[in-house]
Design a protein that fits this description.
Helix 9 (about 315-325) packs antiparallel against helix 10. About 25% of the residues lie in helices and about 15% in strands. With about 500 residues, the protein is an alpha+beta fold. Among the domains are: about 1-45, no CATH class; about 50-100, Oligo-1,6-glucosidase, domain 2; about 400-490, Golgi alpha-mannosidase II (Immunoglobulin-like), CATH 2.60.40.1180.
Length: about 500
């Protein structure tokens, strides 16, 4: 039996065979310090003990922890479908009832109408807070107030009542960073989620911008080229609506999304340039940036040859459904290459060693074959890597208040190639200018800002003129008192000091 000491906490005792220890290589250690996290996983055997109790009888004390409806076999309560495909109702013959599952059949939905359920959840969160946890991400939290009989899943009538109670009973008892995943959020709803009074969350993940390359009225697998004009106006709307009334989360990658460098960038000839460009565009905005594992290396979508190599239940169900509809396997795989969640779920690429240095054993999922050339070891040895560029962006954000408080103004709103905007506070104005194409484009803004100071650029060499090279990005500053990258009051510098201190 093992006790796991981690982040100032003790976990266990656990049988070693029930534990999986996450990567602790020298490469991992060299990536730098951050917020301590729990670096082990307790294996799960697939049985939900509480749910097994709930299935025993309608009188079982756990039965009402879940959402049930009386019925008869093969006659569903309604025609609602699961997000992962197939009916959202599963028959339990021993009870003569269906249970509701918005996602996998192995994920029965909790009944938030039951105060005992809510109390159990609050106690669990408080337990983690007592152990020193600093924050929480709440999965699809906008679906807790569902009313399946009315086919309401997102933004149910009691949603914010439940969230305020949750916050009051848990998060407000400590100093927490909290983010709710809310696919159905609008800017106005997000004001409630991220109200500065702390009554709900610190912020939410919203997905309006990330669905703009999906054909309207169809499934996520039906992709269209990104309309940059729509993307700019969407992000500008979120920036301006939440300004001084809420807070944005900034992301383009996570475990549910394909990798952005393959999606909106160029993962071939301009992989590094486009990865840096997308990072620049995002990190210049107001909000909290989220970096998903491998994004900081420029990791790309995987393209396995066979459906048998994929693991995601949504991907596998879609493949079966589209085969039945007459789609060709090659056509379906093309959609998978573009949009499958498995693109972002391949093991972290630490080195060019076997399995990307992720494990000496057999990983649960195949490693992207390009780990030979795209990996953390290679990034640490290349001073111009995507990884070091992310470090520079983060340093800029930490040292310049304009990134926190500056007002956002979209420039060139109808331009189909350039995404540009300014951020302005009482001391500083910055220009963020990015080229979303693999072509050189003329940008008159660079003429207007010719006397501005270049804070960061994703090409190694500077260049005069108003031309943006393929996927080029630049942040420039202009003000009376510019707080520069590398400015530290402790070393005797003052605002306006003109010393050119290296970002590194």
């Amino acid at each position: 039996m093992s006790v796991i000491p981690e982040s100032g906490m003790n976990f266990g005792k656990y049988d070693e065979k029930d534990l999986f220890h996450i990567e602790t290589s020298e490469i991992y250690k060299k990536l730098g310090d951050g917020i301590p996290t729990v670096e082990f996983i307790l294996k799960y055997n697939g049985n939900n003990i509480v749910f097994l109790e709930a299935k025993k009888s309608k009188d079982n004390p756990y039965h009402d922890y879940y959402v049930w409806r009386d019925g008869e076999e093969d006659v569903y309560p309604n025609d609602m479908n699961s997000v992962f495909g197939g009916p959202a109702w599963e028959w339990v013959p021993e009870l003569g009832q269906y249970y509701f599952h918005q996602f996998s059949v192995k994920q029965p939905d909790l009944n938030w109408e039951n105060p005992k359920v809510r109390r159990e959840l609050y106690d669990m969160i408080l337990w983690w807070m007592e152990k020193g946890a600093g924050g929480f991400r709440l999965d699809v939290i906008d679906q807790i107030a569902k009313e399946p009989d009315l086919k309401i899943t997102n933004n149910g009538p009691k949603l914010h009542e439940f969230l305020r109670e949750l916050s009051r009973e848990t998060f407000q008892k400590g100093d927490m960073i909290t983010v709710g995943e809310a696919w159905g959020a609008t800017p106005e709803i997000a004001k409630k989620y991220s109200n500065p009074d702390g009554s709900e969350f610190s912020m939410v993940f919203q997905f309006e911008h990330i669905m703009l390359d999906q054909e309207e009225g169809k499934e996520k697998w039906d992709t269209i080229p990104l309309n940059l004009v729509k993307l700019k106006k969407c992000l500008a709307k979120w920036q301006n609506t939440l300004y001084q009334t809420g807070w944005n989360s900034l992301f383009m990658n996570n475990h549910d999304l394909p990798r952005i460098v393959s999606r909106w960038g160029n993962d071939g000839k301009y992989r590094k340039e486009s990865a840096k460009m997308l990072a620049t565009m995002l990190h210049g905005m107001q909000g909290t940036p989220y970096i998903y594992q491998g994004e900081e290396l420029g990791m790309t979508n995987v393209q396995f040859d066979s459906i048998e190599e994929y693991e995601d239940i949504e991907t596998l169900n879609m493949y079966k459904e589209r085969l039945k509809k007459g789609y060709q396997p090659e056509e379906i795989l093309h959609s998978i290459y573009a949009r499958s969640r498995d693109n972002a779920r391949t093991p972290m690429q630490w080195s060019s060693e076997r399995n990307g240095g992720f494990t000496t054993g057999e990983p649960w999922f195949a490693v992207n074959p390009n780990y030979i050339r795209i990996n953390a070891k290679e990034a640490l040895e290349d001073e111009n890597s995507v990884f070091y560029y992310y470090q520079k962006l983060i340093q800029l954000r930490k040292e310049n208040p304009v990134f926190v408080d500056g007002k956002f103004d979209l420039l060139l709103p109808e331009d189909e190639k350039i995404f540009a905007y300014t951020r302005t506070d009482e001391h500083t104005k910055i220009l963020v200018c990015t080229n979303f194409t693999d072509e050189e484009v003329s940008c008159p803004l660079l003429d207007e800002w010719k006397d501005g100071e270049v804070w960061i650029r994703n090409y190694e060499d500077g260049r005069e003129g108003n031309i943006l090279r393929p996927y080029e990005a630049v942040i420039m500053g202009a003000a009376v008192n510019i707080v520069k990258a590398g400015y530290f009051p402790s070393d005797g510098a003052t605002e306006g000091d003109n010393r050119d201190i290296s970002y590194l």
